[in-house]
Write a structure and sequence with these properties.
about 180 residues; mainly alpha; 5 helices; elongated
């Protein structure tokens, strides 16, 4: 009888560990980790060379980065997100590649006719002299904490709570119904 109780306990722990490994994406002895490749319709660059992508249902940041050949980290940094972020939203405008500023093409101007100079009349203006505005400096983004990495998205939080609940239920079943201390 004691061996069957130990066996039930080991099976419960193995089940919980298997669910945790399956949800965190860690490979479980021979399991394939490949996800199906989504069909991403890439956007045409704007005249200045910048590229924006608007996600539709089924798009992932990983698939978008693969389609454009840009790393997820670079896309997140361009959009002001944490480099390790992986959440995107449908309809969100995502900057994929920054464009180059457009330069004016010089055109030939006609030769100006000489003008006879006339005296300039000084008229004081009522507007104050503009002051220089400070140029903002980039702010370093702190790396995410261990808690943010583990519980970084709502799906992982849900599966973690479910796993903890299953462990609790297994312990209640084992110690409440199966394990009977000897008097």
């Amino acid at each position: 009888m004691k061996a069957s109780k130990v066996l039930v306990f080991i099976l419960c722990v193995a089940f919980v560990l298997g669910v945790f490994l399956w949800q965190t994406g860690l490979p479980v002895s021979g399991a394939s980790n490949e996800l199906p490749m989504a069909q991403i319709i890439t956007s045409t660059p704007l005249p200045d060379g910048s590229i924006y992508h608007i996600p539709v249902e089924g798009d992932t940041l990983w698939a978008i980065s693969e389609a454009y050949g840009v790393s997820m980290r670079d896309i997140n940094i361009l959009n002001g997100n944490s480099p390790e972020a992986n959440e995107i939203y449908i309809g969100q405008r995502i900057l994929i590649r920054r464009g180059e500023p457009m330069t004016a093409t010089p055109e030939a101007s006609p030769t100006a006719m000489p003008v006879t100079p006339s005296p300039t009349v000084f008229k004081p203006s009522r507007t104050p002299i503009p002051s220089a505005t400070a140029i903002p400096s980039p702010t370093a983004t702190q790396p995410p904490s261990r808690v943010q990495v583990i519980f970084g998205d709502s799906q992982r939080v849900g599966w973690t709570i479910t796993t903890i609940s299953l462990v609790g239920i297994a312990l209640v079943v084992f110690f409440g119904f199966i394990y009977k201390p000897k008097p």
